[in-house]
Automatic annotation (TrEMBL):
Originating organism: Oldenlandia corymbosa var. corymbosa
UniProt-listed PROSITE patterns: FAD_PCMH (PS51387)
The organism's place on the tree of life at top rank: Eukaryota
A Pfam family assignment: BBE
Domain FAD-binding PCMH-type, chain residue ranges per copy: 71-246
UniProt keyword terms in alphabetical order: Alkaloid metabolism, Disulfide bond, FAD, Flavoprotein, Glycoprotein, Signal
Cofactor(s) required, per the database record: FAD
Protein name: OLC1v1033552C1
Signal peptide start and end residues: 1-16
Family that this chain belongs to: Belongs to the oxygen-dependent FAD-linked oxidoreductase family.
Length: 529
């Protein structure tokens, strides 16, 4: 027993465990599962140690950022892939007993790999088997298990109805567990708000391994897991969601303009009118440095991608009133069902059938990436935009994405959920760099570019706090290596993600997980006793 005891003390001492003890950890974990009523026959199929030949495949299956798929990336001591709820409960209890850190993974889309990477000895609790989606059509609700992917949800909704939808993200392979608990959003944001504005119940496993529903967990914890991140509070098993109405036909467009085609004028009009748009309209703008000629001269191009919950006759007059310089015409528009629009947002061509939404393999492949975020309250003037374009050309690779807010978002109070970026926000900025080259030098350069552009944007975005979107995980804005963070450490990133809601999250954390078992690099810290 002695070596095991020592091993499990290592995280407390802040040291890394030697890899040779993987089999000891495995055996002891397997025994613990059986003591917790998991049939012995079920254990080998749900538990992977690094010595298992399938370990890498199971680990990599939901790695969605190749920055965290290197030999230097710390690997878990165990991956647990439970097939039912009792096995998830036992995994929580046994991870605690083993003194290991728990990392829960649903879809693996965390931009910093926080669901499957840790500096400490850790267990990945991988929920991909928990993907049931169960509808109750009379009440227009559904229970969605955490390991279901958004594309699976959209497809399943479309099989029930062509006039119901769910307001969530545009990438079909994002997992429900991370996305909803982090306050997801998508093209329905201006009409219907966030994912968390449509959650009516939940099922969570607490630090004692107990399964709780909304009644059992109480309104505080239920509030916290609607945008405060699931990983600080427990393991989310499922959310019950309200579906929202959409028309049978929606209209989408994707148009590009270069800097010389009045891009900055169009962006001025975009920013100045967002608050006046019909709630049925959502526009995302990509701003990217592009190569314009054979001598590799760079310029900037903007791409406006829009969705209107209505037909072209309703959309065109709005666009010509608010963004006349864009000159949108009927030829730019495509009509389709809402579920087809989710294929459109995911870059599938218009001949693709909705079945493609059930694919668990990302349509755009998996590469290296970095994301950051900002919020804008005052339009950036034309000269500011031109200087931004110059900066983006100078940097060369990093792009920006503007996601329009307003509409329903402005009507929901900041403390209704942990997600605080509501009234007064014109749009959110995502900083985006993607690459496929494996050289460390390029990785350094691109990460550096994102930081430089973020610094450049300081005068144009929110301050005190400089706000950031929790689901656009960004470790640069503050973090701790082992999640054993003090209130002051947690506050550094906590107020950027949650503003004044941070303190309420800390109180709830202190009540439900005082020993900080559920911790990550950016989790909510409990207050000391
Ligand atoms: C290609 C791509 C497109 C995206 N598009 C959008 C978008 O349109 N809108 C948007 O809002 N966001 C978007 N995101 C961000 C996305 O919402 C977040 O990364 C989200 O957290 C991913 O959820 P996941 O389950 O896939 O991630 P995971 O990596 O599995 O988890 C993310 C975090 O949540 C925790 N977690 C996961 N499951 C559970 C659970 N069951 N219980 C407790 N904690 C859990 C993890 O431990 C981790 O801390 C996108 C991300 C990518 C990579
Ligand atoms: C967490 O940090 C506190 C204070 O720094 C320390 O006393 C405690 O031992 C740490 N716990 C772990 C598990 O690292
Ligand atoms: C991750 O790295 C391993 C080992 O180099 C490789 O086999 C695997 O294909 C990589 N995963 C992805 C998604 O590229
Ligand atoms: C999913 O649903 C099926 C059919 O109702 C059921 O047999 C199975 O146990 C469910 N799985 C989980 C993990 O809840
Ligand atoms: C590229 O830019 C340079 C400097 O602005 C200019 O002199 C040159 O003509 C451009 N090349 C092309 C092919 O337009
Ligand atoms: C685009 O900009 C040019 C040059 O400033 C101007 O002449 C033209 O009228 C603008 N076009 C529109 C549609 O605003
Ligand atoms: C589908 O895309 C093709 C090629 O881009 C285009 O020609 C066609 O008009 C589109 N069909 C519809 C219905 O929009
Ligand atoms: C990477 O950077 C190092 C040091 O900064 C340099 O010595 C090396 O030549 C670079 N490698 C490449 C492939 O550019």
């Amino acid at each position: 027993m002695l070596p095991i005891v020592l091993l499990f003390m290592l995280p407390i001492l802040g040291l890394a465990a030697p890899a040779a003890d993987d089999s000891i950890i495995y055996e002891s974990f397997a025994k613990c599962l059986q003591r917790n009523r998991i049939p012995a026959a079920q254990v080998p199929a749900m538990l992977y140690s690094p010595t298992n030949p399938a370990f890498s495949d199971v680990l990599n299956a939901y790695v969605r950022n190749l920055r965290f798929n290197t030999t230097a990336t710390k690997k878990p001591s165990i991956i647990a892939t439970p097939v039912d709820i009792p096995a998830v409960q036992a995994t929580v209890v046994c991870t605690k007993e083993a003194g290991l850190q728990l990392k829960t993974r649903s879809g693996g889309h965390d931009y910093e790999g926080i669901s499957y990477v840790s500096a400490n000895p850790f267990v990945i609790l991988d929920l991909f088997h928990l993907r049931n989606i169960t509808f109750d059509m009379p009440t227009q609700t559904a229970w969605v298990q955490a390991g279901a992917l958004l594309g699976e949800l959209y497809y399943a909704i479309s099989k029930q109805s062509n006039v119901l939808a769910f307001p969530a993200g545009v990438c079909p392979t994002v997992g429900a567990g991370g996305h909803i608990s982090g306050g997801g959003y998508g093209p329905l944001i201006r009409k219907h708000g966030l994912t968390v504005d449509h959650v009516v119940d939940a099922q969570i496993i607490d630090v004692n391994g107990k399964v709780l529903d909304r009644k059992g967990m109480g309104e505080d914890l239920f509030w916290a897991i609607r945008g405060g991140g699931g990983a600080s509070f427990g393991v989310i098993l499922a959310y019950k969601i309200n579906l929202v109405p959409v028309p049978p036909v929606v209209t989408v467009f994707n148009v590009q303009r270069t800097r010389t085609q009045n891009a900055s004028d169009i962006l001025v009009q975009y920013q100045n009118t967002i608050e006046k748009w019909d709630d049925n309209l959502f526009i995302r703008v990509l701003i990217q440095p592009v190569t314009v000629d054979k001598s590799s001269n760079k310029s900037v191009r903007i791409t406006l991608i829009g969705e209107f919950l209505g037909n072209p006759d309703g959309l065109l007059p709005l666009m010509n009133t608010h963004l006349p310089t864009l000159g949108l015409t009927k030829a730019d528009l495509q009509e389709m069902s809402w579920v087809e629009s989710m294929l459109f947002w995911a870059n599938y061509d218009n001949a693709t059938s909705p079945e493609a939404l059930n694919s668990r393999v990302p349509h755009d492949g998996v590469g290296f990436l970095k994301r950051k975020s900002d919020y804008v309250q005052k339009p950036i003037p034309k000269e500011g935009l031109e200087s931004l374009f110059d900066k983006m050309i100078e940097l060369g690779k990093v792009g920006l994405v503007f996601n329009s807010y307003g509409g329903k978002m402005s009507q929901i109070p900041e403390d209704a959920t942990p997600f605080p970026h509501r009234a007064g926000i014109l749009y959110k900025i995502q900083y985006s760099v993607n690459w496929h080259d494996t050289s460390d030098n390029l990785t350094k350069e691109y990460l550096g570019e994102a930081v430089k552009l973020h610094e450049f944007m300081t005068p144009f975005v929110t301050s005190n706090p400089r706000q950031a979107f929790f689901n656009y995980r960004d470790i640069d804005i503050g973090s701790t290596t082992n999640g054993n963070n003090t209130y002051e450490e947690g506050k550094v990133y906590g107020v950027k993600y949650f503003k004044n809601n941070f303190d309420r999250l800390v109180k709830i954390k202190t009540a439900v997980d005082p020993t900080n078992f559920f911790r990550t690099e950016q989790s909510i810290p409990p207050l000391p006793k």
